[in-house]
Amino acid sequence: MAKYEELNIANKLKAIAGWAKNGASKADIAQKLGVSVRQVTMWEKSHDDFAMALRNNSEVADGELLATAFDCATGYYVEEEDAIKVKSYEEVAGKAMAVEKVKKVKVKKYIPPNNTMAMFMLKSRFSEYGEDKSAKVDKVIIKSEFDDELEELSK
Length: 155
Prior knowledge:
- This protein has six helices and two strands; from the N terminus they run H-H-H-H-E-E-H-H.
- By secondary structure, it is an alpha+beta fold.
- The longest helix is centred in the middle third of the chain and has 27 residues, at 48-74.
- The radius of gyration is 31 Å and the shape is flat.
- The mean pLDDT is 82.
């Protein structure tokens, strides 16, 4: 079994934290380090610094993902740079000449809510409210006042 000290894991904690933050599983991290998942689990139990690198950063990634999904579901603003043409007039040889220049301006744009993401978040967070009721209906029978007469005529 590979030893924690032999592989110099203490000096690789920043990289391991980065992998965890980017969503790497224990299996992914074990593969990158060239050890088994069992070894990673043992190190997590016996080395607090290793456990912190794994745990805290995966929680941060989960929180960032949840925040992004929430923004997507509810709508949000972004700041972008747009290029616009600016027309000005300059005097050249006694005549006014139109000069066009491109200028970059910052624009705040609203990204509307994504209904699909809103439905997904509601279903996952409040499963009792997000159940698909239509899936539970087997058969709908609509009866009119003429059904009895039609049945008698068809006999």
